[in-house]
Automatic annotation (TrEMBL), chain A:
<dbReference type="InterPro" id="IPR003317">
    <property type="entry name" value="Cyt-d_oxidase_su2"/>
</dbReference>
<feature type="transmembrane region" description="Helical">
    <location>
        <begin position="6"/>
        <end position="34"/>
    </location>
</feature>
<keyword id="KW-0472">Membrane</keyword>
<dbReference type="Pfam" id="PF02322">
    <property type="entry name" value="Cyt_bd_oxida_II"/>
</dbReference>
<feature type="transmembrane region" description="Helical">
    <location>
        <begin position="260"/>
        <end position="279"/>
    </location>
</feature>
<keyword id="KW-1133">Transmembrane helix</keyword>
<protein>
    <submittedName>
        <fullName>Cytochrome d ubiquinol oxidase subunit II</fullName>
        <ecNumber>1.10.3.-</ecNumber>
    </submittedName>
</protein>
<feature type="transmembrane region" description="Helical">
    <location>
        <begin position="162"/>
        <end position="182"/>
    </location>
</feature>
<keyword id="KW-0812">Transmembrane</keyword>
From TrEMBL, chain B:
<keyword id="KW-0479">Metal-binding</keyword>
<feature type="transmembrane region" description="Helical">
    <location>
        <begin position="20"/>
        <end position="41"/>
    </location>
</feature>
<keyword id="KW-0249">Electron transport</keyword>
<keyword id="KW-0813">Transport</keyword>
<keyword id="KW-1003">Cell membrane</keyword>
<comment type="similarity">
    <text>Belongs to the cytochrome ubiquinol oxidase subunit 1 family.</text>
</comment>
<protein>
    <submittedName>
        <fullName>Cytochrome ubiquinol oxidase subunit I</fullName>
    </submittedName>
</protein>
<feature type="transmembrane region" description="Helical">
    <location>
        <begin position="354"/>
        <end position="376"/>
    </location>
</feature>
<dbReference type="Pfam" id="PF01654">
    <property type="entry name" value="Cyt_bd_oxida_I"/>
</dbReference>
Length: 341, 448
């Protein structure tokens, strides 16, 4: 395996990590706001806060890691994506900033402010949407080169059905992933009411998620036939992913093995995510930038990989400790051990 | 082709974001160390007050971390958004420390979360101390790595430029560039110093505002002592930085010192005003610049006359230099008087006006940080990579930068107000007296 592939695999894995952790986070914010709005706050808020509080900062680092890593391994992305993404990425930063700071202000400052909860929930839904624009742009067709500089055509972007399908997928997937996770978490906390409510949401969002995901593949057939062809070559990965989806829904429907249901969900998204990534190969920005012409020099690539391995040796035990103390600590999950910020 | 308007707004927006971010970043680097020290002192002296000090600081710290994280994410992305050409070039050589910084940050984030939510889980306080070490280490290392990137921009090395192509790249050599030791040391130590004085100013303020609790007195003397140590260290390293500049970046030193003509026995100019190229009302310390630059009162110091006109930084950086140095020296004096006063039992350090001076010390230290960064950054104009790439060639070609500037300015106003409101509410609602009582009741012992 060459270094280019290794680099993109590392980054793709971190992006996948971010997608899962952040989806739980964003969706939880939305469900929390929704529960405040519909008078069901007492059911959900405790569960959500107890899970989110220790990990909110970690979630953000996954994203930082990804974009710093991309520029490190593929410096040319700074030129292409940096130039065209000024407006969309700035909006994402603004939303992330509002969300991150409001969360801290709300949790540690004034508890139970309705406006905060609302802002928090809403911004969480817009962030995945604004970030997913990058995925759309990477499919090509929205960027032209003028005077040697890339320029983004906003009109084509916003009038493309592909844009809106990816937008809808980002919303539904966030709510679905989050609902499945929180069902499991609430069940572990022996909170029957919260479990039932989250189970309902999980089943509600499962169908729209799978429909939009399938729809995007069809749209790619018209938008980027080359990519579509490569997706068809990997049909078995998508098929496996779909089977896992069925498994998750089956388990949740029958109210059993919520942990395994979440495991299947993670598998489903991992397969689809990697299959999508592989089929995108070798382009970072179709057709202008491939992972080969955007790659950094050999010396930097080797030192980045070395730093990455050293970093992982530090990170994995720490993350394990974090999970053990909060996610897998029975007393903490059930709210019997200390939880007072 | 340079897009003049985009260049102008990109510079303003970067300056705005960084100026706002470093307030939180400096606190974020310095305060964890103070928290760790307080926890450690508390364990050593078996004194509940210091443990509580660590916890109350942490609670305020979380708010500043949150804003630091979001503004840090902003500047991280803005680097590529506003300076795509620069990042494309520099990314080839300097991505390594940037990458390592995220690891340090990751490490800190994980353990801060753990420390915050395991308040009373472990009987043994030493375990809580163990959790604080990675937080402080992670915070300091993110400062170290990110300052390496900045040092590289001042003294690029670790590659060869052949026909406009970068070859023979060595990331390690790029990281350990000549600007690195003084820059990193100065940044880290001044962050510790600022954090100590900011916390001292809170303690002094509480003492002034009626609470005469022994807790605040302990906080004040601990932070002032730490502040003294770090401010002396900052001054010493500042002197090394001057020597570094004389050797590697003489145009920055010359501009900061208004040293126009190359000469030996160079005087140091303090304060003053520049009018039509004439320096007025300045205090001249004979030989001092030669000493600062080369540790030799007769040594020759390069003046601005040796540089092409379009490579000279703006001369207003002199005022920034003066601001930084004056505040630095003033804080050394103030904390030294406090320390001697504590030993000799002088009454003066308990007077109202002295405490007001201490209160002022926190904001002043932050101002010195800002002034120092502005001087360092403006002082390397017109270069973004000194001697390699001009700032104008690194900027984006996008036309919407002005709009982004407005958006982000609005965001920072909201964040600033939010921080102030939440922090003051948090501590006013829950004074230390009440918290001590609550804790005593929780433990079932007597209220102290």
């Amino acid at each position: 395996m060459n270094l280019e592939i290794l680099g993109i695999l590392v980054l793709w894995t971190f992006l996948f990590g971010y997608v899962i952790v952040a989806s739980v986070d964003f969706g939880a914010g939305f469900f929390n706001a929704y529960s405040v709005y519909t008078g069901k706050k007492h059911i959900l808020t405790n569960i959500i806060q107890r899970y989110l509080s220790p990990v909110w900062e970690v979630t953000n680092v996954f994203l930082v890691f990804f974009f710093v890593g991309v520029v490190g391994f593929f410096p040319k992305t700074a030129f292409y994506y940096g130039t065209i993404l000024l407006v969309p990425a700035s909006i994402s930063i603004l939303l992330l900033a509002i969300r991150g700071s409001y969360y801290a202000f709300e949790t540690y400052g004034s508890k139970g402010h309705k406006g905060y909860a609302f802002m928090y929930g809403l911004s969480g839904l817009f962030i995945p949407a604004s970030l997913s624009i990058v995925l759309t742009i990477s499919e090509g067709g929205f960027v032209s080169i003028v005077d040697g500089n890339p320029v983004l055509d906003y009109w084509t972007l916003f009038s493309s059905p592909l844009t809106w399908s990816i937008f809808v997928l980002s919303l539904t997937a966030v709510l679905y992933i989050s609902a499945v996770f929180l069902t499991w978490y609430a069940h572990k906390a022996k909170d029957k009411k919260a479990t039932e409510l989250m189970r309902k949401y999980a089943l509600l969002w499962a169908f729209p998620t799978i429909v939009t995901a399938g729809g995007i593949i069809v749209e790619l057939r018209f938008h980027n036939p080359e990519h579509y062809g490569r997706i068809l070559d990997l049909w078995w990965m998508f098929a496996l992913s779909f089977l896992m989806f069925i498994g998750t829904v089956y388990l949740i429907w029958n109210r059993k093995y919520y942990g395994r249901a979440f495991g299947l969900l993670a598998g489903q998204f991992a397969l689809a995510f990697y299959a999508y990534g592989f089929s995108h190969y070798p382009y970072l920005l179709y057709p202008h930038l491939t992972i080969y012409d955007g790659f950094t020099n050999k010396a930097m690539a080797i030192s980045l990989v070395a730093a990455f391995i050293a970093g992982l040796c530090l990170l994995i035990p720490s993350l394990y400790l974090l999970l053990r103390l909060f996610l897998f600590d029975k007393k903490y999950v059930e709210g019997k051990s200390d939880y007072h910020p | 082709m340079v897009n003049e308007e985009a260049l102008f707004f990109s510079r303003i927006l970067t300056e705005l974001t960084l100026s706002f971010h470093i307030i939180y970043a400096t606190i974020g680097v310095g305060v964890p160390l103070m928290i760790m020290i307080a926890q450690w002192v508390g364990i050593k002296k078996n004194d509940e007050h210091y443990i509580l000090l660590a916890r109350r600081w942490t609670r305020g710290f979380v708010i500043t971390v949150a804003v630091g994280v979001v503004t840090g994410t902003a500047i991280g992305l803005q680097l590529s958004l506003l300076w795509p050409n620069f990042m494309e070039l520099a990314g080839n050589v300097i991505a390594l420390p940037l990458f390592m910084e995220t690891f340090a940050f990751f490490f800190e984030a994980i353990f801060l979360g753990i420390y915050l939510y395991t308040w009373d889980r472990f009987e043994n306080q030493k375990k809580h101390l163990l959790l604080l070490i990675p937080v402080a280490v992670g915070a300091s290392f993110s400062a170290i790595f990110i300052t390496m990137v900045n040092a590289f921009m001042n003294a690029p090395q670790g590659f060869e430029l052949v026909d406009g192509q970068l070859v023979n790249i060595n990331p390690i050599v790029a990281m350990f560039n000549p600007a690195m030791p003084t820059k990193v040391a100065h940044v880290v130590v001044t962050a510790y110093m600022t954090a100590a004085f900011v916390l001292a100013s809170i303690a002094a303020f509480r003492l002034l505002r009626g609470s005469n609790h022994i807790y605040h007195k302990k906080a004040l003397s601990l932070t002032m002592k730490l502040g003294l140590i770090f401010s002396i260290a900052a001054a010493v390293i500042g002197d090394f930085s001057g020597k570094y500049l004389a050797e590697y970046q003489p145009e920055k030193l010359a501009a900061a010192e208004w040293h126009f003509d190359t000469e030996g026995k160079a005087p140091l100019i303090l304060y003053g005003k520049l009018e039509d190229g004439e320096v007025k009302y300045a205090i001249k310390l004979p030989f001092a610049l030669s000493v600062l630059a080369h540790s030799d009162p007769t040594a020759e110091v390069l003046g601005l006359d040796k540089f092409p006109e379009d490579e000279i930084p703006p001369l207003y950086i002199h005022y920034l230099f003066d601001t930084m140095v004056t505040i630095g020296v003033w804080m050394v004096v103030l904390s030294f008087v406090f320390w001697v006063g504590l030993k000799r039992r002088w009454r003066i350090i308990h007077t109202k006006w002295f405490r007001w001076l201490v209160v002022l010390g926190g904001p002043l230290s932050i101002l010195a940080i800002e002034a120092g960064w502005w001087m360092a950054e403006v002082g390397r104009q017109p270069w973004v990579l000194r001697g390699l790439m001009k700032t104008a060639d690194g900027a984006t070609s996008s036309n919407q930068v002005d709009l982004m500037l407005v958006l982000f300015a609005g965001l920072y106003v909201i964040l600033a107000i939010g921080t102030i409101v939440i922090l003051s509410r948090m501590f006013r609602k829950n004074p230390v007296e009440r918290e001590l009582e609550d804790r005593a009741v929780e433990k079932g012992g007597d209220p102290r």
